[in-house]
Amino acid sequence: MLCIMVVEDDADARKLMDAVLRANGYDVLLAGDGKGALDAMGERHVDLILLDVMMPRMDGYAFAETLRKYRNNVPILMVTARDTPSDKKRGFLVGTDDYMVKPVDEEEMLLRIKALLRRSQIANERRLTVGKTILDYDAFTVSADGNVQALPNKEFLLLYKLLSYQGKIFTRRCLMDELWDMNSETDVRTVDVHINRLRDRFNGNEDFEIVTIRGLGYKASVRA
Fold first, then answer.
1. Are 75 and 120 in contact (CB under 8 A)?
2. Is 92 helix (H, G, I), strand (E, B) or coil?
3. N or C: which end of the chain has fewer CB within 10 A?
């Protein structure tokens, strides 16, 4: 059974998340702040962390930063009332994988948890398979029908990101923030250029396509 740690200083919120997660088949480990969470993680394996930001002793930012400092790559879903762009940016910079703003929609939270767990499994294997197409993260290659292509760094990471979250819509800004340096002056239209290159490369691929969602961004759609 997969174990999810809930790091939240509000007792009622902890209790609610505990009940929701257990009802959906997860084992749950609870902590009231970052220091308590670090102690608990020394006692058992954790597959994913639901993390509040504002907590005593050690807040969510410091906790996430500490984990990444020691190369612990457990997925972190930050759940907080802080919703400004600077708050989100800081969360991603310290190593958060995803971000939700309170009050949280339980169904959406569960879907995000599943996506993060799936991505974590892919990252551990460092290989992603979509139909007969195989993406090798170590070699930055894509294999399909016996043809192996070595992709430029950004093209591979962009395709890997989209296919890791099949059906999820990513805005250009989101893709820029994750795959390019946040301090870069590169225009978001750079994403369009890379998407067009990927489409040209995989025009005949029978396993997936990259779909433009007008006014929003892009998603990967897997062909039946």
1. yes
2. helix
3. C
CB 165 within 8 A of CB 115: yes
Single out the residue of 47, 42, 111 nearest to residue 74, CA to CA.
Answer: 47
Please tell me the distance from the alpha carbon of residue 141 to that of residue 152, in angstroms, as a whole number. 9
C-alpha triplet 184, 189, 193: angle, nearest 5°: 110
Cα separation, 78 vs 101, whole angstroms = 8
pLDDT at site 123 = 66
- Contact at 8 Å (CB) between 43 and 16? no
> Sheet containing 217-222: which strands, arranged edge to edge?
170-171, 217-222, 208-213
Q: What is the C-alpha to C-alpha distance for residues 31 and 113, in angstroms, rounded to an integer?
A: 18
Strand partners, 141: 136, 150
pLDDT at 183 over 60: no
